[in-house]
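Translate sequence into structure tokens.
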Amino acid sequence: MSFQIISKLLRPYRSAIAVMAVFSLLVSLIQAASPFVSSFLIDKGLIGESFPILTGAILVLTVLNLFSHILQYLQTKKEIQLTNDFSRHLKAAALEHGLRLKPEYFLEHGFYKIIGDALFDIEHIMNVVTSNCMMTLMIILKAVGAAFGLFFLNWRLTLLILPLIPIKCLWNQWTRAKAETLGEKSREAAKSYHTWFSDILSGIFDIKLWNLNSKIISEYTAHIDKINDTSKTLLLFRAKNTRIIQMTEFIFVDLLYLPGAFWMEKGQVSLGTLVTFLSFSSYFLLPVDALMDLRALFMQTKPNIEGIKNFFSFEEENYTSKLLPKEPVHTIEFRDVSVTIEGREILSHVNFTARRGEKIAVVGDNGSGKTTLIHLLLRFIRPTSGEIFLDGIPICDFHIEAYRRLFSTVSQNIHLFQGSVRENITVNHTKLLSISDYPSFCTDAVQKLDKQFDTPAGFCGDKLSGGEKQKIAFLRALNRTAQVLILDEATSNYDLKSETKFYHFIQKNHAYGFYFIISHRQEMLSFSDKILRL
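Result follows.
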């Protein structure tokens, strides 16, 4: 994701970031003062045997320490709130972008895979950066303050510890490439799992039907083992490097006692200065550690950032157009429309014009492109060549939501949302029409349910029969005010009696300007104004 996107997303949180920066600056100043107070306590209070100075210095250190912890708590509180708000904002932005993507992105991997990968990248970035980045920045500011204090306390000892900084930098440079490779393997393992899970997500009944439980469990454990193994390898690699560098620091700092003792003997360093310097010496290295950790964190999340950047670069449908369809629509025209998918020609040079008031039957063998034609009309796919026009205007020029409001559809594959039958009919906050406004063969089916319109539909409508789902989907279509009614094999699960009533209803209904009806039934052809044979 580009810095422009990040800065845009962070813009609402500028005041919170400014407050956190002020807290960090105050903590840094406190840390800069602490070495001087500690040295003064030892030299003038303990060695000088002055009880008033000792108690005063202790009181000052206590107040400074208390104030520092209060500031750090307030900053943590702000950080948690900022993290939660920013995470929610970023995930909502990703989901919104995903919902607005052109449908062809979902043809190969599906919606769950694309959104799952994006949300995984965001979650990984937030887990790594927000839990460590702000803490690291706080450590840097604290350490810089203490380091300045120590430098002014004794510059000789400071010069002796400085060579450890390039040593740590070179070590980190050597280990960084390995950590990046391990991080990429961990990410790929997780994304491979998302691809696999997306594939089986909707296949639970086939899994049961073909007794695939053992196979699925075996594949699942293999994916989890791979994720855990790559994660463990990365964590152990970082832990080993941490131990090595910490041991190097320990030895290096302990050796400072030798020159310290020499300078004490010459009166160039006091005992308080030496003890305080050695006690706070780690603060010289903390900025290096923190900066290296910060760089490692960003390198660790680099693949995720690239993934999110690529995701946000995916093209959205036309939500920016100000062009709205004029009502009523008079003509829908296909001009030389062809569709080729992965080298296979689905539709070839389709030409026809639908005029207002027509009922159009779309017929053809399986695989002839009937549903593809409907998907073209709904802008779920784009023609490989040719163009579709609405009253002479290319349909791709219209604002996508305004354009799709023209249509009310019963698709071949019915999806019902979790909720009641009523909620599935009145999607998008529409009102339920009067029962008398619906065809009785549909409402009778609903009235026979245990709780009628308040009956839970279940997951994907699994608590209902295939015919009940299709009738509810038909009610949903009729409940929407639209200009075009599309029925794609809308009666495939109807009984003969209901199907006959359905066609009688469609024959007499004139509420829509256009009717596109896909069906294998000959009854449909008898009242169709136009027949498209594919």
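Note: The chain has a mean pLDDT of 82.
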